[in-house]
Every structure is written in structure tokens, then in C-alpha cells.
Design a protein that fits this description.
456 residues, alpha+beta, three-stranded mixed β-sheet, 13 strands, extended
Amino acid sequence: MRCYALDGSRRASDSIRHRKSKQITVGIPPFGTIRNAEGYLTATQAGAWKLPTGGWQAGENGAETPMEGAQWRSYFEAARRLLELYSENKGGYNRVCKTLTYEGWAFRDRWNNPRLFSSDDVRRIVANWREYAGIVTDGRAKERVAHETAENAAILFETGRAVFDLDLLRKVAQVQEERSMTTRPTGSVDRVYPYGLLRLLYCATCETIARDEDNPRRRSRLSGTNMDRPRYRHAEGVRCGCKRRSVTAEKIESDFLRLVHLLTLKPEAHQLMLELAMRTSIEEGETQDLEAEKRAAIALLRQQLANLLDLYKNAVITAEEYYRDRGDRERQIAFWEARTTETQKKAVELEQVMVAFSQLLELWTGADSDERSRLAASLFQYLVVDLDTEQIVDFRLHAWADQYLCLRAELYEEGASGAFGDLNDDELGEENDNRFITVESDEAILTPVGLEPTTN
């Protein structure tokens, strides 16, 4: 029987070999180019409009401006500018990426959507200098190690199909060979330091970009470094437009403690919060129905245990079957005994959150970095930091603590502001911070001012 899959594979391989023999590229064209009718690369007319309101809008050269003040950025010219910057050899991929971001150029992803450049985008474009010259070689560009290939620029010759100037591409090839290495020299990679809020902090500018582009991969987590003093720094190779690249750990952790103080209730207010939770979630007859169901289910399971023992004694079932079924019934009994009403469950979770906030404040000062990290991660999913203002501007608690956030805002709305923890002026430097408090009329929620409320 003829294998159609193998036949199709051979046809595809023959087609690729034929196109490469004619110096025609295969796959997605390199950034800034498209294929003409003959299959060879040529400059694309596509690009992006940089909107005055922020963000980008894809378009074609010569098309109508989407709004007043929008600036046209051609993808082809962006690729040319990138190669020019790299050929100057004044820095690596990160520096080129930063310059392109400041100059307002956009990259096109594989779905033809414009976005900011990343260092990985710079690497891909530089690695395709052969294709830009109209030369097609075997293998993938990322697998070519420049310093292992003698005289890379020597393969450049006039083909009549180059989309950029050959002198520019020759400089790019020479710089790539000079900068290429297989191992990093000692001391070239900064050590990452474990700090109390590590793996929780994200860049606010990148969060805005991720939300506008609907692309979670644009989020950037801050790491730790110790240049002049302990700092949280922006991820390397990601340029989002923020002016600052790092913030001192002392400043952010003080802001974090200020936030925790504002979320913490005084011990005498715990009962008030629990009463509020019970008042908003009690359902008529819920407790009585559950207790009756529990008693009936447990009685049935205990009777089944007695029946199993009788069957085992009379040799109707084996020992293996008896112990297996007995363990199953005992697990079911334990489940029913531990089951509570939704109201009781929420009350227990609420008590756990209140205790967790109090413990975080008590233990933070004397804890080491690992303990601080565990304490913060037990309550918070993430914290968003504006590096330019050096402040926490958004946060998200774990799902099990969301109820506390809603009830705490409702308690604040009812005027029980004295129930919240007081800030220590000596430790935090400020008495209050209304930046963290807004109350929505329909659904009370506590969020930083200026950001939309978030709920799970």
C-alpha cells in the first residue's frame, strides 16, 4: 500500500531543495521584507502607525492616517535602522533594542501585529544578514555560530537580489563575528540576589502594554541585583519605555509594608469583620439541611463498615477486598465529618486571611529573605511597580483572600476606618496613603487609585 504521508514529505523536501537551489528563501520572510512574484525578497510596504494615544496600529505605506498626530514607522526602515545601529558596534542586542524603542520603531510579530522590539527580535534580524543579501544557505540562522565560521563576510557577493546595501551587511557580519562567543567570560553575568518580594514584582509599563496588546507574554517580572545597594531591576532585554530600570529594595519593601498596614485590621475589629461576612452570606435553612445530610451519610457509611466486617468474617470477601473497601468508607466518613456550610467555610478562610496579614507584619522585620518571600507569596499573587515613580500601583491577592478584600472595603465604606492598622511613622515615613483605597458603589473592592478594580 502506498504511503501518502511519506510521498507528501518527499514532495515537500524536493520543493524546498529546488527553491534553495535557485536562492529562494523558504518559511516566513525575514522582518521588513516580502516575496515578489518570482519568490525573491523585496522591501515590504507594511508598517505601523505610532498613535499619540499610545500603542500601535498596523497599516500600509501611503494609506490614510488613522488619527491626527500618528507617526508612520515602516518595517523595512526599522530593519535598516537596526542593522545600522548594530554595525556601529557600540553595544549588543539590548542596547540596540533600547535605542529602537526610544526612537519609536515597531516590530511585527508572526500574526502581523505591531509591538515593541525585544533583544530576541534584534538577534533574529542580525542572524538573517545572508538572506537580506540574497544568499540562501542550509540550516537555520540561529544554529550558525559566527566565530566558528572563518570570514563570514567573504561569502557576500553581488547577486542583484540584496534588499540592503552590501557594505552595510558586510559590517554587520564582521561585528557579529567579533561579538560571537560560545561561553561567557567570568563575571559577565550579574548574580541574581534573593530578596523578600522576588518573583512577585512586575513592571507597570509592561503590564499596560500586555493589557493593550492582549498578550500576557509582554509582562516583565523584576529580579534582584546589588549594584550600589540592593535593588529590584527590570528584566534584561525588555524595553517598554520606562525611564528607570531599577528601584531600591528598601523603597519598594517599605511601600509594600505600607500596603499591608492598610489592609490589616486591628485585633478588636476581627469580630466585626466576621459578623459582616456572616450577615452577607447566610442562607435560610442552609445549616440545618447540611447537618441532617451529614448525619444520614455518616450513619449509612458506618453500617456499610459493619456489613463489610461480617462479609470478611464469613469468608465471602478476601482480606485485600475488605481492607480496600474499609479504607474507602473511612475516607468518606472523614470527608463528611470535615464538611461545613459555605458560610462556615468562608468564615474560616476570612479568619485565616486576617491572621496571615497580622503575622506578616509581626514576622517581616526579623525574617530573612526566603522567609519574607514565603510570607508575601502566601497572600499575594503579584505586585505591580511603577519604576519611574518607585511605587506599588497595583496588586492581586490569592483567590481565597478575595472575600477579605471585598469585606474590608465594605467595612471602610461603612465608616469603620479606625478598625484598620495604623502606620508607624518611624518605620514607613507616612501616616496614610489613600493611593491604595477606592470604593466602587456596585461592588466594593480595594484597589490602587487610577486602576480598574480586579476580581477573580
